[in-house]
């Protein structure tokens, strides 16, 4: 009997890239941070590149180097540098870095032993990683200095959209104008015409004005549209075997605190996945899983390593597989269903699946 297994569905990743392709002529960067949103960074990256993504994106240079080590040869950008830009690692692996602060770019220019490919990260309304607008001139000045010294080459200008999930192009207008302004300043400074990129999945799906030269797609690769406007293909299936069963009378409290009480005689089945494996502990009573084509409720509190399901008058032998989530529809819950039951977003469900769950590729 296989234990809990998370299968990454590479065909779904490919279909999602194809879906994005129908909506933009810009290049597609496949963002595979956080282990490819929990689906396996290399697995998702390979599937996305095979389907036409021309770039890869990660949070850290370390994540980017792991993709290079796996043989991925397309350009890769990393945009958050916890202890300053690791210029040597980036240059050695041929990884581009986004830099959104004057100090960080200054340090890079001071230290880089060989030319580092840089994307200037400008704040377009997030007030997060980008350089605030009042410092753009200074940032560009440092870039010019670094360019002359051959320490950096500005190959990109990057922004990020704070409001694209509203699916209202008007909400993105200020960021689009900011990007244009930044590009103009970069060109005027003699830094050429770098690749401009602003949109993530929501912008790519809902607002062509945000596409510029490239769109950065993360959630969309694994079937999540943060704007909630486009049906995409869920790219994983989490299954777990029933490992224990019992038959109990009506009125039996189940689990810690007896939060669930059987209202009739019932078969209870235990699945070996709990909150340590990423099953949210705070759940609506509507939460359930699929077994043999029917949905059965999660009974009582989620434990660290297990959940109990109430299968009513149906008895299933141990070893029977339950589907916790998957893209199958019908009785099978989706990642979106779990997010809804837990009062969160689908991203936290897929990135939360723990290391004890076996990974496989389908
Ligand atoms: C995560 C991330 C993305 C991808 O966003 P999705 O909405 O998941 O497509 C793009 N750009 C940056 C800077 C990110 O951090």
Automatic annotation (TrEMBL):
Q: Which GO terms describe its molecular function?
A: alanine racemase activity; pyridoxal phosphate binding
Residue stretches making up the Alanine racemase C-terminal domain: 235-362
Reaction(s) this enzyme catalyzes, per UniProt: L-alanine = D-alanine
Record: residues binding substrate: 128, 304
List, alphabetically, the GO terms of the cellular component aspect: cytosol
Could you say which enzyme class this protein belongs to? Answer: isomerase
EC assignment: the record states 5.1.1.1
Q: Pathway, according to UniProt?
A: Amino-acid biosynthesis; D-alanine biosynthesis; D-alanine from L-alanine: step 1/1
- What GO biological process term is on the record, naming one? D-alanine biosynthetic process
| Keyword Nuclease attributed | no
Q: Which residue positions does N6-(pyridoxal phosphate)lysine occur at?
A: 33
Question: Which SMART domains does this UniProt record tie to the protein?
Answer: Ala_racemase_C
The protein's job, in short, is:
Catalyzes the interconversion of L-alanine and D-alanine. May also act on other amino acids.
Q: NCBIfam families, alphabetically?
A: alr
Q: What is this protein called?
A: Alanine racemase
Supply the source organism for this entry.
Answer: Actinomadura physcomitrii
Give the lineage: Bacteria, Bacillati, Actinomycetota, Actinomycetes, Streptosporangiales
Q: Which gene encodes it?
A: alr
